Amino acid sequence: MNFKTGDKVVVIAGKNKGKEGKIINVLRKENRVVIEGVNIVKKHVKSNGQNAGGILEVEAPIHASNVMIVDPKTGKGTRIGHTVDKKGKKIRVAKKSNTNLD
């Protein structure tokens, strides 16, 4: 999986198709990402000494295959490629515009 926390992505499939947001968390073992403002679910929380109980709305993980990174030039979804820069470091690039993503 080539996503990192802070990447701007667009959802390409599912009930949230077309929504954009930044990645909050990457769950590499489950191949899922948590995106800010996308896939909102209601969570019932019991009250304890510090927090009041109630129904909270939180972001749930979405499968990584259902999101694409947003190309910095075009603003549309694109795949991620890899190349080596002049210093010999491997970097991520957008396939559509060949723009550096790191």
CATH topology of the largest domain: SH3 type barrels
What is the helix content? under 10%
> Which regions are unreliable across 5 or more consecutive residues at pLDDT < 50?
none
Report strand order across the widest sheet.
6-3-2-1-7-8
Listing every helix as H and every strand as E from the N terminus to the C terminus, the arrangement reads: EEEEEEEEEE
As a percent range, the share of strand residues is over 45%
Counting helices, strands and paired strands, the structural category is mainly beta
* Rg (CA only): 17 Å
Layout of helices and strands:
Elements: E1 8-11, E2 20-27, E3 32-35, E4 40-45, E5 54-59, E6 62-63, E7 67-70, E8 77-78, E9 80-84, E10 90-94
Antiparallel strand pairs: 1-2, 1-7, 2-3, 3-6, 4-5, 7-8, 9-10
Q: What key phrases describe this protein's structure?
A:
single chain, 102 residues, mainly beta, SH3 type barrels, six-stranded antiparallel sheet, two-stranded antiparallel sheet, 10 strands, 0% helix, elongated
Describe the structure.
0% of the residues lie in helices and 45% in strands. The chain is mostly beta strands and 102 residues long. The protein has a 6-stranded antiparallel β-sheet with strand order 6-3-2-1-7-8, with no helix packed on it. The radius of gyration is 17 Å and the shape is elongated. The model has no long low-confidence stretch (mean pLDDT 94).
